[in-house]
Each structure stands twice: as C-alpha cells, then as structure tokens.
Specification:
The chain is mainly α. The protein has one domain (2-38, 99-221). The chain is 88% helix and 0% strand. The protein has eight helices and no strands. The protein has helices at residues 2-34, 40-64, 75-91, 93-98, 100-124, 129-148, 151-156, 158-221. Helix 1 runs antiparallel to helix 8, helix 2 packs antiparallel against helix 3 (75-91) and helix 5 packs antiparallel against helix 6.
C-alpha cells in the first residue's frame, strides 16, 4: 500500500508539471491573441514565477516526505534544475525574449515527449492511446519546426503560431486530466482484482482445511 501511495504522489507531481506547462502555453497564446498590449517579457516573468514555485515545491517535498530514502526518486535534481531555469528566466528576461521561440519550442517539445510516454501508459492500460499518440506527434513535429524555422517565417505566421499555442494549452490540460483519470481508474481496478484474488485464495484454503478435517474425522470414526 505504501508503494502504491508513493507512485500516486509521483504521478500527481508529474501531471501537475505537465498541466502547468500547458497552462503557460495556453496563457501566452491567448494573451498574444486577445490582449494587444501584451508583451513577451510579461510571459517571461510569469513563467519564471511558476517555475520558481514548482521547483521550490519539489525540493521542499523531497526533504519533507523523506524521498531521499527512495533510490529512484529524482525530485530534488529536477526541482533544482527548474529553480535554476526560473532564476535565469527572471534575471535575464530581456535576453530570453530575444529567443522566445526557442524557449517556447523547447516547452512544446517537452510536452510532446511527456505525452508520448502517456501514450505507452494508455496503451498498457487499454485506454484511448491513439488520441495521445496523435497529439504527441503533432506537438513534437510543431516544436521541431519552431526550433528550425527562420525568425522571418515565425514573424509572418505569428498569429497562427499563437492560435496554435492557445489550442495546445486547452487540449493539453484536458488530455492530462483524462490520463490522470484513466490511470487512477486502472490502479483501482488492479487493486480490486488483487483483493478478489486474495479472497478467492482464502476461500479455497478454508475449503481445503475443512476437507482435511472431515477426512480426519472419517478416519477416526473408522
């Protein structure tokens, strides 16, 4: 039961990170579309603040939950890397704006890879894995195009770019919720199957013991 709880806590932190990234992408896309006066440097400050909060959360939880006792837990390392990235984003926000497409492209790529892993999980759990596969493929292809595209091309298609980010944010959050629900449902079903199997095993053992007692009584009567 303790191992299951540890897995659930890890799943929650992973889903939370993916949701935060999708929210950031959706926010920047939506703001650039619907708020004409929005400047990218504001997004840098928002992203830096979010990363700073999440990185601090991972590092604090690592010690508070004694996760250093788990060999396969890397929340401290990940949290520290996110903290460093947050500080760089906040301190060098003006420079980050100059390479914002690369910054956003990496974020989209990270989400695509995460969804690709979710695809494997969904297939294993007999969920709608093909939907996550399609979405993950779109994100990875889009991120690669962003990272390789010339600045002039991105400027020419800026509106379409931000619309796509906004759509990615909305669909991404929904996909994470679906994956989380499917994962929890799968684990509940597995736990129920284990309980049923243990109950059946106990009943079989009880029947065998009764049969042995009856045989012993029959032998004594003879």
């Amino acid at each position: 039961m303790e191992k299951t709880n540890n897995k659930n806590r890890s799943n929650i932190s992973g889903v939370l990170a993916a949701v935060l990234l999708f929210l950031l992408l959706g926010i920047v896309g939506g703001c650039m579309i619907f708020v004409p006066d929005m400047k990218m440097i504001y997004f840098c400050y928002i992203a830096g603040g979010v990363f700073l909060t999440y990185g601090s959360y991972l590092v604090i939880r690592y010690f508070a939950k004694k996760e250093y006792e788990m060999v396969s837990n890397y929340h401290f390392s990940v949290g520290l890397l996110i903290l460093i990235m947050a500080l760089v984003t906040l301190i060098r926000a003006e420079e980050v704006v100059q390479i914002i497409t690369i910054y956003l492209g990496i974020m989209v790529l990270v989400e695509g890879v995460i969804l690709l892993q979710h695809t494997i999980q969904m297939k294993h759990m007999q969920g709608t894995w093909w939907l996550t596969l399609v979405f993950a493929t779109v994100l990875i292809v889009f991120s690669v195009l962003m990272l390789l595209a010339e600045e002039s091309v991105l400027n020419d298609y800026a509106d379409a770019f931000y619309v796509f980010l906004f759509i990615i944010g909305i669909i991404g959050v929904i996909s994470q919720i679906v994956v989380a629900i499917q994962t929890n449902r799968y684990h509940r079903e597995q736990e129920l199957k284990k309980e049923v199997a243990l109950q059946e095993e106990a009943e079989v053992t009880e029947m065998e013991n009764l049969e042995e007692k009856e045989d012993t009584i029959s032998q004594l009567e003879e």
